[in-house]
Structures are given as structure tokens and as C-alpha cells.
Amino acid sequence: MTLTALLTRLIDPYAEADGPPPDAFWPFARWALAGAGRAIFWSAVIVAAAAMIEVASAWFTGWAIDRAQAAGAGSFWQPFGAVVVVGALFFLVLRPIVFAGDAVGTSILIGPHLFPLILSRVNRYTLGHSMRFFEDDFAGRIAQKEMQTATALTQVVAEALDVGIYATAMFAGALVLMGGLDPRLLLIFALWGIVYVWALARFIPAVRIRAKARANARAAVTGQIVDTITNIATVKLFAGDPTEHCTARVSLEAFRLRSVEFGVLSVWFRLTLTFLSGILPFASIVGALWLWSRGAATSGEIAAVSMIATRLGMVTNRLGRVAVTIYSNIGEVQDGIQTLTPPHGVTDRADAAVPEAVGEIRFENVRFGYGGETSALDGIDLTIAPGEKVALVGASGAGKSTLVSLLLRLHDVEGGRIVLDGQDIRDLTQSGLRRLISVVRQDVSMFNRPALDNIRYGRPEASEAEVVAAAEAAEAHGFIQGLRDFRGRVGYAAHLGERGVKLSGGQRQRIALARAILKDAPVLVLDEATSALDSEVEAAIQDTLYTVMEGKTVIAIAHRLSTIARMDRIVVLDEGRIVEEGNHDSLLARGGLYARYWRRQSGGFLGMREAAE
Fold first, then answer.
1. 104 vs 423, which has greater pLDDT?
2. Distance between CA atoms of residues 110 and 258, nearest Å
3. Which of these, 475, 472, 473, 441, lies nearest to 549 by C-alpha position?
4. Distances (CA, A) of 474 to 188, 346, 467, 491
5. DSSP 592-610
């Protein structure tokens, strides 16, 4: 087993965390770093050993000088043989080994493993948020917060080990060395240490606060730019380049101001610590010279004190700079915590069951309003029998898509309940529930991955032959074969671009249909599933769709009423309520809202809400 493989066994970079993340820094750090304790401990031991090596180097130098002064001029090997042998073993063997171990700890063990450990945990929790969480924020801002939090916490640990532990161990070693020379030298260190700690306590809270403000401003810039690029087609169509540039400048100016505020504080902090780091070697050397003048110190001891004090001054000066980095990163972590760690809006109960099959679906007095005063659904009572094919009809905003979202538990009902085969869906696991339902939506987004992977997302274990068969059934195989991306990948290996931007709306919908066909779930939800298809393609896949529907419970939403006329039952919604139910012929005979929609469509399209006559 290689050294790298051995070291990586100390930490599993993808171990799952226990429970949700806390909303305070230190508890969050323990949650995010749980399982990395052994790796961090041994890295700290090696760093401390490296610091002690530096103290020992100063002691060795002083010892060599005193040996030379005692021996005087003359022969070399007899008086200095021990110095040469010990020095060779120390400087050429022990010191390189310890410092190599220090590099291994920071460069192989800590850096490459803590970041994926933290990010995988943060990302896993973020993915568990409800749709409302993602609807209320920028996608780019959320992604920025995840990366920011993982990067900043990794740097906190790395810098704390590399400089914090190193400086602390060196300071402790210096105390031992100084105390061995003369206890009075310890007074210099004690007084300096008190002033140094006071300076840290004075500046650190302000550094953390301003770092947090800077991080929030940076995330706002990222979110604004990502939002613009995501909607670049709209920007181009409306000649919005100047507007978006001005909007970005507003965010950038806020970031610049927060950065300047942070920079001013950092300058004063570093100036103070640099001044303090100069006091220590100066006072220590003066103290050692005073002892020498009294005959209480040797030349070698003066050299040792000078070396260790100067080295410690350099380290504490670096510690001051690193302290700014550490506490600015702590501020960034705290900023990320505020965004990412709110409790999940939709959660699985502790005893949630995994559904195995689909029976009757029942909506019982369901009410929902997206947390607002206006109800999107108000008292919906609807029962769908196993294998029944139900169409939902209504003007835009009537509540059709909301009803489907509640069935999928993208949101939880605010009143009433939804029952699947006798069980409240809140008593079922979300993943288990959604595995039973295939969905094709009007707004279809693709991953920037191969076409094969986009279709296979419906059933990851499916073979390539099964993927191709599903694509053929959805009339997607032909155009997929002609795909080519900018890297020269073709056909099913071609990447589709961000959100499938390289495809037309109809092509995206056909891939979405292929994905649903491949999943082959017992419940099929078609939310305007053919709205982006031209009449010729729609006619070509219509028979396939009806074949796919066989034996499944189907909920279909469509404005083109001709596509749902063959459903077992049509449910008409208006202003969040069910106003009519029946098949196509009975609803036409009734002469109500559905009949009016049917009469007033143009080309089979149901337009916006008609004014009541």
C-alpha cells in the first residue's frame, strides 16, 4: 500500500454527516468536520514537531558556539566531532523527515480531503431543501455559498494547523528554552503574550463582521451575474446589455465598499501585529545581553535567544496576517451558514415508509397558497382510481400545476391531505414517492451532459439499448443522432449545453418524454408535455403516448383540449376550486366552463382566462 493510500484511510472524504447542520460556527464546524478528527490530530502533531525542530535548531546553534568558545583555536575533529555528527543527523536526516511529514499532512491529507468532505455534506443538505428555498434565491448565489463555505472552512483548518499550531508550539518551546537559560527571560514573553492576545481580542470580532459583509456582497454579485447569463436570450432579445451592466455595477459597487472597509481594518490589524512581532525579538535580545553583561548568560545562549526570538517574531508576524485570513474565512462560513442551514421545509418523518406500489390517489380538502394570503388551491377534493386517466383543465393560474407539485411533495399542503393507497404521502419517503411518478413538464430543463445521460436519468441502471428504444418511442432518436457539441462529441455522447440550450423546445420535450418512458413508473404526469411539439411530431408520438399510458394512472394537464379529449375523466379547475367533472362529451353537453373553452379555442389551444359572461 502506498503512503498516499495509507494516509487517505485516515479520512473518508464522502462520509455522510449526522443530522442537519447547526446554525452557529463552532457547532457547524464540528458537524462539517466530523470524521476528520484523526487526520487533523496527526497533522497537528507533525506541525508541532516541525516547530520544535526550529527551537532545537536555535539550541543546537548556541551549543555549537559555546563548544567552539570553550575549545578555542586548534584542532577540529577532536573538539567538534560530536557537533558535526549530531548536526548531520539533525539537519540532514531528522529535520527533512519532519518537514516532509508536515508537507504531507497539509498537502495530501488535509487540503485534498477536507474540501470534498465539507462540500459533499453541505451540498447534500442543500439538495434536501424544498422548492420554495430555491424559488426564493438565485441559483448562482446558492452555488456560490456552497463553494464559499467549503473553501473557507478548509482554509480555516489548514491555516490554523500551518500557522496557529506551529506558532503555539514554537512559543511553548521558546518558553522552555528561555526558562532553562534564566527565568527572568520568561517575564518578557509573558508580558508580550498578554499584549498580543489583547490585540487579537480587540480586532478579531470586527474582522469577522466585516468579512461576513464582504462575503455577502460577493455572493450578491455572483448571483446577479449568473442570473443574467442564465437569461441571456432574454437579455439579447430586449437589448438589455446596458441595463444588465448597470445592475451588475450596483452590486459590484456594494462589494467594493465592503472590501475597502475590510481592507482598512486589515491594514490597522497587520500594522499592530507587525509592531508587536518586532518588540519580542528586540526585548529578548536586550534581555539576553543584559544577562551576559552580568555573567549570567554565555555567547551561545545569546545566539540561541536571538535566533528563537527572531524566528518567533517572524512567525507571529505571519500569524497576524493569517489571523485576518482565518477570521475573514470564519465570517464567510457564518455568512454561508445563514443561507444554507435553515431547516428543510419538506422533510421525511422518522418512521416514513417506502411505498412499493400505487393504488388510489385521493386529495382531501387540500388547501395551499405558497405561504401567502391568496389561495392557489382552496378545498380540493379529488379521487383518482388506480389506472384511471384524468385530465386537469383550467385557465392559467387555476391551480393545475400546483396540484401536481403537491402530489410530488415539492411543497407540503397547508391544509387537508393527499393520500396514496390509504397512506398520507407525508408518511412516505420523498424519494420513494417520486420514484413511483414519471413527470414531463412544459418547462423542460436538461443537464449539460450527454444526451444518453439525460435520458438515462429516468432509470440510471438502464442499458444503452433501452435508452435508444425510449428515444425512438419519443421520436427523439433521429435528431439525437445528428447532435454534435463543440468538443466533437456526436449523437448520444454529445453534451446538450446548460439547461439544454442547444436544443429547440420540441427537442427538449421529446428527450423529457424519452426519460419518462424509460422510467416506466406506475403514475405518469404530463404537464403540458406536448406544448412545444409541432402538430406533425405530436401526431407521430400520440399513439406512443397512449401506449405508454396503458396500465398507468395518468394525470394530464394541457391547454390544447384535443390532446385530452380521450381521457377517462376531465376535471375543470377555476380559481383553485373544482367546478366541473366528467368526460369530454358530458362536459360539452353540460354547456359550462369546459364547453366555453372548447368553443373558444383557436387551433385547439386554450388561451388565457376568459371573462365570465
1. 423
2. 31
3. 473
4. 81, 33, 11, 16
5. SHHHHHHHH-BTTB--SPP
Does position 315 have pLDDT exceeding 80, yes or no?
Answer: no
Report the candidate in 554, 337, 361, 339 with the shortest Cα–Cα distance to residue 439: 554
Which helix or strand (DSSP H or E) is residue 498 part of? Answer: none
Cβ distance 56 to 169 under 8 Å? no
For 278-288, the pLDDT digits (tens) are 887 788 778 77
Angle between helices 299-340 and 25-33 (to 10 degrees): 90
Confidence (pLDDT) at 7: 66
CATH number of the domain residue 395 falls in: 3.40.50.300
Query: Per the structure, how many domains does the chain have?
Result: 3
Residue range of the domain that includes 425: 355-436+542-613
Final residue of a domain: which of 340, 371, 391? 340
Higher pLDDT, 344 or 298: 344
504 and 548 assigned to the same domain: no
Count the alpha carbons within 13 Å of 593 in the hemisphere toward its beta carbon. Answer: 22
Residue environment code for 374-395, b if the CB has 16+ CB neighbours within 10 A, otherwise e = ebbbbebebebeeebbbbbbbb
Mean pLDDT score of the chain:
83
Q: What b/e string do you get for 228-241 counting C-beta neighbours within 10 Å, with b at 16 or more? A: bebeeeeeeeeeee
Please compute Rg for the chain using Cα positions: 35
Q: Give me 225's grid cell.
A: 451575474
Determine contact, residues 580/594, Cβ cutoff 8 Å: yes
Tens digits of per-residue pLDDT, 549-579?
888 899 998 766 666 777 899 999 998 999 9
Query: Cell triple for residue 566?
Result: 380521450
How many angstroms separate the CA atoms of 219 and 101, rounded? Answer: 37
What local confidence, expressed as pLDDT, does residue 534 receive?
65
CA-based torsion, 184, 186, 189, 190: positive or negative: negative
Residue 427 has pLDDT above 90, yes or no: yes
CB hemisphere CA count around 292 (13 angstroms): 15
Q: What is the pLDDT of residue 610?
A: 44
Q: Is residue 79 part of a domain?
A: yes
